[in-house]
Amino acid sequence: MPLLEIVQIRRVTASIRLEESTAALIDQYAAFLHASADEVVDKALSYVFAKDRDFQDFLRSPEAAQVPASLRIRMVPQNNGAAEPANGAGKSAKLGGGRQ
After folding, report:
1. Does residue 95 belong to any structural domain of this protein?
2. pLDDT exceeds 70 at position 31
3. What gap in Å lies between CA 82 and CA 20, rounded to an integer?
4. CA distance 20 to 28
5. Residue 76's beta-bridge partner residues?
6. Which domain holds residue 23?
7. Per the domain annotation, does 62 fall within a domain?
8. Is 87 exposed, middle or buried (0-12, 13-18, 19+ CB in 10 A)?
9. Model confidence over 50-62: pLDDT tens digits?
10. Whole-model pTM?
11. Which run of H or of E encompasses 15?
């Protein structure tokens, strides 16, 4: 049995708009943590999603399965060279975009 288990995480690049003050705070928090802005946004959203009990209830509802995708996901080429949405064509995606 191997001593290490390597888990590959599929990341996507997404485009979002933020208030300028929020973007500045993300940069400040990233510097404070010695992390990237992408990591700050990803972990902050994951934390909020996990802690919000009403949201967790919503995720278990039939309504959650019918939510249209609104996050702008950058198209990435697949192994066969065809471009497909990085979010799996409508599946939920992690936020991975930073300020540019």
Report:
1. no
2. yes
3. 36
4. 12
5. 84
6. 14-85
7. yes
8. buried
9. 999 999 999 999 9
10. 0.67
11. strand 14-15
